[in-house]
Amino acid sequence: MKAVLIDLDGVIYQADQPIPGAQRTLDWLKARRIPYLFVTNTTSRPRDAVVEKLRLMDIQIKPQEVLTPVVAVAGWLNTQGAVTIASFLPKTTQKDLSQFAQWAGTDDGCVSAVIVGDLAEEWSFGELNRAFRLLMSNPDCPLLALGLSRYWRSVQGLQLDVGPFVKALEFATGRAAIVFGKPSRDFFQQALTMLDVKASEALMIGDDIRGDVGGAQAAGLKAALVKTGKFQQTDLSGDIVPDGILASFAELPAYWKSLE
Protein backbone atom coordinates (compact mmCIF):
# COMPACT_ATOMS: atom_id res chain seq x y z
CA MET A 1 0.00 0.00 0.00
CA LYS A 2 1.17 3.50 -0.86
CA ALA A 3 -1.75 5.81 0.01
CA VAL A 4 -4.90 6.12 2.10
CA LEU A 5 -8.36 7.49 1.36
CA ILE A 6 -10.17 8.51 4.54
CA ASP A 7 -13.82 9.22 5.20
CA LEU A 8 -14.52 12.08 7.64
CA ASP A 9 -17.85 11.83 9.46
CA GLY A 10 -17.81 8.67 11.56
CA VAL A 11 -14.09 8.07 11.02
CA ILE A 12 -12.25 11.27 11.98
CA TYR A 13 -15.10 12.72 14.02
CA GLN A 14 -18.52 11.73 15.29
CA ALA A 15 -21.30 13.96 16.59
CA ASP A 16 -18.97 16.98 16.31
CA GLN A 17 -16.35 15.33 18.51
CA PRO A 18 -13.01 13.97 17.25
CA ILE A 19 -12.52 10.23 17.35
CA PRO A 20 -9.91 9.53 20.06
CA GLY A 21 -6.49 9.08 18.47
CA ALA A 22 -7.51 10.53 15.08
CA GLN A 23 -4.98 13.37 15.10
CA ARG A 24 -2.27 11.04 16.35
CA THR A 25 -2.91 8.71 13.42
CA LEU A 26 -2.81 11.63 10.96
CA ASP A 27 0.52 12.68 12.49
CA TRP A 28 1.73 9.10 11.97
CA LEU A 29 0.77 9.22 8.30
CA LYS A 30 2.63 12.51 7.88
CA ALA A 31 5.70 11.19 9.68
CA ARG A 32 5.74 8.12 7.45
CA ARG A 33 5.14 10.32 4.37
CA ILE A 34 2.15 8.21 3.38
CA PRO A 35 -0.06 10.27 1.01
CA TYR A 36 -3.68 10.57 2.10
CA LEU A 37 -6.85 12.28 0.97
CA PHE A 38 -10.14 12.82 2.75
CA VAL A 39 -13.05 11.65 0.60
CA THR A 40 -16.40 12.65 2.00
CA ASN A 41 -19.98 12.72 0.78
CA THR A 42 -20.66 15.78 2.93
CA THR A 43 -22.75 18.33 1.02
CA SER A 44 -24.21 20.17 4.00
CA ARG A 45 -21.30 22.65 4.02
CA PRO A 46 -18.66 23.94 1.56
CA ARG A 47 -15.14 22.53 1.60
CA ASP A 48 -13.60 25.44 3.51
CA ALA A 49 -16.27 25.03 6.21
CA VAL A 50 -15.36 21.33 6.51
CA VAL A 51 -11.75 22.36 7.11
CA GLU A 52 -12.82 24.96 9.68
CA LYS A 53 -15.06 22.43 11.47
CA LEU A 54 -12.07 20.14 11.92
CA ARG A 55 -9.82 23.01 13.00
CA LEU A 56 -12.21 23.70 15.85
CA MET A 57 -11.66 20.08 16.90
CA ASP A 58 -7.89 20.69 16.80
CA ILE A 59 -7.59 18.54 13.68
CA GLN A 60 -5.52 20.41 11.11
CA ILE A 61 -6.12 19.69 7.41
CA LYS A 62 -5.86 21.72 4.20
CA PRO A 63 -8.68 22.34 1.67
CA GLN A 64 -6.70 20.55 -1.06
CA GLU A 65 -6.65 17.45 1.13
CA VAL A 66 -10.45 17.14 0.89
CA LEU A 67 -12.47 15.82 -2.06
CA THR A 68 -16.20 16.45 -1.81
CA PRO A 69 -18.94 15.62 -4.33
CA VAL A 70 -19.55 19.36 -4.86
CA VAL A 71 -15.91 19.94 -5.81
CA ALA A 72 -16.08 16.95 -8.15
CA VAL A 73 -19.30 18.06 -9.82
CA ALA A 74 -18.00 21.60 -10.33
CA GLY A 75 -15.11 20.23 -12.37
CA TRP A 76 -17.47 18.10 -14.46
CA LEU A 77 -19.88 20.98 -15.09
CA ASN A 78 -16.98 23.09 -16.37
CA THR A 79 -16.14 20.44 -18.95
CA GLN A 80 -19.79 20.39 -20.05
CA GLY A 81 -20.02 24.14 -20.52
CA ALA A 82 -22.83 24.42 -18.00
CA VAL A 83 -24.42 27.85 -17.56
CA THR A 84 -27.47 27.68 -15.29
CA ILE A 85 -27.88 24.95 -12.69
CA ALA A 86 -30.58 24.00 -10.20
CA SER A 87 -28.89 23.05 -6.92
CA PHE A 88 -30.92 21.22 -4.30
CA LEU A 89 -28.43 21.54 -1.48
CA PRO A 90 -27.85 24.01 1.38
CA LYS A 91 -27.23 27.60 0.27
CA THR A 92 -23.91 27.68 2.11
CA THR A 93 -22.65 24.74 0.06
CA GLN A 94 -23.62 26.47 -3.19
CA LYS A 95 -20.53 28.61 -2.57
CA ASP A 96 -18.47 25.84 -4.19
CA LEU A 97 -20.63 26.22 -7.34
CA SER A 98 -20.51 30.02 -7.48
CA GLN A 99 -19.07 30.06 -11.02
CA PHE A 100 -22.45 28.95 -12.36
CA ALA A 101 -25.73 30.85 -12.49
CA GLN A 102 -28.32 29.46 -10.08
CA TRP A 103 -31.87 28.69 -11.22
CA ALA A 104 -34.21 31.33 -9.83
CA GLY A 105 -36.82 28.76 -8.84
CA THR A 106 -39.73 30.59 -10.46
CA ASP A 107 -40.35 28.42 -13.54
CA ASP A 108 -39.41 25.12 -15.15
CA GLY A 109 -37.18 26.78 -17.74
CA CYS A 110 -33.96 25.50 -19.23
CA VAL A 111 -31.21 24.48 -16.85
CA SER A 112 -27.92 22.70 -17.58
CA ALA A 113 -28.23 20.27 -14.66
CA VAL A 114 -30.28 19.36 -11.61
CA ILE A 115 -27.97 18.71 -8.65
CA VAL A 116 -29.24 16.86 -5.59
CA GLY A 117 -27.37 16.96 -2.29
CA ASP A 118 -28.22 16.61 1.38
CA LEU A 119 -30.98 19.09 2.19
CA ALA A 120 -31.83 17.24 5.42
CA GLU A 121 -34.92 18.80 7.03
CA GLU A 122 -35.17 21.38 4.26
CA TRP A 123 -36.61 18.64 2.04
CA SER A 124 -40.36 18.83 1.51
CA PHE A 125 -42.81 17.51 -1.04
CA GLY A 126 -42.70 20.87 -2.78
CA GLU A 127 -38.90 20.93 -2.96
CA LEU A 128 -38.65 17.36 -4.28
CA ASN A 129 -41.44 18.06 -6.76
CA ARG A 130 -39.60 21.12 -8.07
CA ALA A 131 -36.61 18.94 -8.90
CA PHE A 132 -38.95 16.41 -10.53
CA ARG A 133 -40.66 19.07 -12.68
CA LEU A 134 -37.36 20.52 -13.83
CA LEU A 135 -36.16 17.11 -14.96
CA MET A 136 -39.44 16.34 -16.73
CA SER A 137 -39.45 19.74 -18.47
CA ASN A 138 -35.84 19.39 -19.61
CA PRO A 139 -35.38 15.86 -21.05
CA ASP A 140 -31.69 16.45 -21.84
CA CYS A 141 -30.93 17.84 -18.39
CA PRO A 142 -28.84 15.39 -16.30
CA LEU A 143 -29.69 14.45 -12.73
CA LEU A 144 -26.45 14.81 -10.76
CA ALA A 145 -26.36 13.03 -7.41
CA LEU A 146 -23.88 14.21 -4.77
CA GLY A 147 -23.37 10.74 -3.38
CA LEU A 148 -25.76 7.85 -2.80
CA SER A 149 -25.33 7.36 0.93
CA ARG A 150 -28.46 5.89 2.47
CA TYR A 151 -28.12 7.36 5.95
CA TRP A 152 -25.66 8.77 8.49
CA ARG A 153 -25.45 9.06 12.27
CA SER A 154 -26.03 12.42 13.96
CA VAL A 155 -26.35 13.29 17.65
CA GLN A 156 -30.08 12.55 17.25
CA GLY A 157 -29.41 9.11 15.77
CA LEU A 158 -29.60 7.71 12.24
CA GLN A 159 -30.87 10.14 9.60
CA LEU A 160 -31.67 9.81 5.91
CA ASP A 161 -28.94 10.98 3.54
CA VAL A 162 -29.13 12.01 -0.12
CA GLY A 163 -29.52 8.53 -1.63
CA PRO A 164 -33.23 7.98 -0.88
CA PHE A 165 -34.17 11.31 -2.48
CA VAL A 166 -32.10 10.62 -5.58
CA LYS A 167 -33.72 7.19 -5.91
CA ALA A 168 -37.17 8.80 -5.67
CA LEU A 169 -36.31 11.12 -8.57
CA GLU A 170 -34.83 8.26 -10.60
CA PHE A 171 -38.00 6.23 -10.13
CA ALA A 172 -40.33 9.12 -10.95
CA THR A 173 -38.44 10.34 -14.03
CA GLY A 174 -37.24 7.00 -15.37
CA ARG A 175 -33.68 8.23 -15.76
CA ALA A 176 -30.47 7.30 -14.00
CA ALA A 177 -28.48 9.78 -11.97
CA ILE A 178 -24.83 10.51 -12.59
CA VAL A 179 -23.20 10.05 -9.19
CA PHE A 180 -20.48 12.32 -7.84
CA GLY A 181 -19.41 10.89 -4.52
CA LYS A 182 -19.18 7.48 -2.94
CA PRO A 183 -19.83 4.75 -4.05
CA SER A 184 -19.16 6.02 -7.60
CA ARG A 185 -16.14 4.38 -9.24
CA ASP A 186 -15.36 7.69 -10.99
CA PHE A 187 -15.25 9.50 -7.63
CA PHE A 188 -12.72 7.02 -6.27
CA GLN A 189 -10.73 7.29 -9.51
CA GLN A 190 -10.64 11.07 -9.17
CA ALA A 191 -9.24 10.66 -5.65
CA LEU A 192 -6.58 8.23 -6.90
CA THR A 193 -5.61 10.66 -9.66
CA MET A 194 -5.18 13.42 -7.08
CA LEU A 195 -2.83 11.16 -5.09
CA ASP A 196 -1.13 9.84 -8.25
CA VAL A 197 -1.49 6.19 -7.25
CA LYS A 198 -3.12 3.08 -8.72
CA ALA A 199 -6.22 1.50 -7.19
CA SER A 200 -4.17 -1.52 -6.10
CA GLU A 201 -1.87 0.82 -4.16
CA ALA A 202 -4.55 2.52 -2.03
CA LEU A 203 -6.55 1.67 1.09
CA MET A 204 -9.95 3.17 1.90
CA ILE A 205 -10.95 3.69 5.55
CA GLY A 206 -14.66 4.24 6.19
CA ASP A 207 -17.69 3.52 8.37
CA ASP A 208 -20.18 2.83 5.55
CA ILE A 209 -20.15 -0.82 4.46
CA ARG A 210 -21.64 0.00 1.05
CA GLY A 211 -20.54 3.54 0.19
CA ASP A 212 -17.02 3.31 1.59
CA VAL A 213 -16.11 -0.37 1.58
CA GLY A 214 -18.22 -1.73 -1.27
CA GLY A 215 -17.63 1.31 -3.45
CA ALA A 216 -13.86 1.24 -2.92
CA GLN A 217 -13.59 -2.50 -3.55
CA ALA A 218 -15.60 -2.17 -6.76
CA ALA A 219 -13.09 0.46 -7.86
CA GLY A 220 -10.18 -1.91 -7.19
CA LEU A 221 -9.04 -0.64 -3.79
CA LYS A 222 -8.67 -2.47 -0.51
CA ALA A 223 -11.06 -1.18 2.14
CA ALA A 224 -11.18 -1.34 5.94
CA LEU A 225 -14.32 -0.77 8.00
CA VAL A 226 -14.17 1.09 11.31
CA LYS A 227 -16.54 0.28 14.17
CA THR A 228 -17.41 3.93 14.73
CA GLY A 229 -19.90 6.28 13.11
CA LYS A 230 -22.78 4.51 11.37
CA PHE A 231 -21.23 1.05 11.81
CA GLN A 232 -23.68 -1.67 12.88
CA GLN A 233 -22.88 -5.26 13.72
CA THR A 234 -25.13 -6.43 10.89
CA ASP A 235 -22.64 -4.83 8.47
CA LEU A 236 -20.42 -7.86 9.04
CA SER A 237 -23.02 -10.41 7.95
CA GLY A 238 -23.91 -9.01 4.54
CA ASP A 239 -22.61 -9.59 1.03
CA ILE A 240 -19.73 -7.10 1.35
CA VAL A 241 -16.65 -8.33 3.20
CA PRO A 242 -14.17 -5.66 4.36
CA ASP A 243 -10.46 -6.33 3.82
CA GLY A 244 -9.93 -5.22 7.40
CA ILE A 245 -11.97 -4.31 10.48
CA LEU A 246 -10.70 -1.65 12.88
CA ALA A 247 -12.12 -0.59 16.22
CA SER A 248 -11.41 2.98 15.12
CA PHE A 249 -9.15 5.06 12.89
CA ALA A 250 -6.61 5.01 15.73
CA GLU A 251 -5.84 1.37 14.84
CA LEU A 252 -4.63 2.23 11.32
CA PRO A 253 -0.87 2.20 12.15
CA ALA A 254 -1.05 -1.38 13.51
CA TYR A 255 -3.24 -2.51 10.59
CA TRP A 256 -0.91 -0.86 8.08
CA LYS A 257 2.01 -2.93 9.37
CA SER A 258 0.04 -6.09 8.60
CA LEU A 259 -0.18 -4.98 4.96
CA GLU A 260 3.55 -4.43 4.53
From TrEMBL:
InterPro entries recorded: HAD-like_sf, HAD-SF_hydro_IIA, HAD_sf, LHPP/HDHD2
Cofactor: Mg(2+)
Organism, as annotated: Pontibacterium sinense
One Gene Ontology cellular component: cytoplasm
Protein name according to UniProt: Haloacid dehalogenase-like hydrolase domain-containing protein 2
Keyword set, alphabetical order: Hydrolase, Magnesium, Metal-binding
Family: Belongs to the HAD-like hydrolase superfamily.
GO molecular function, one term: metal ion binding
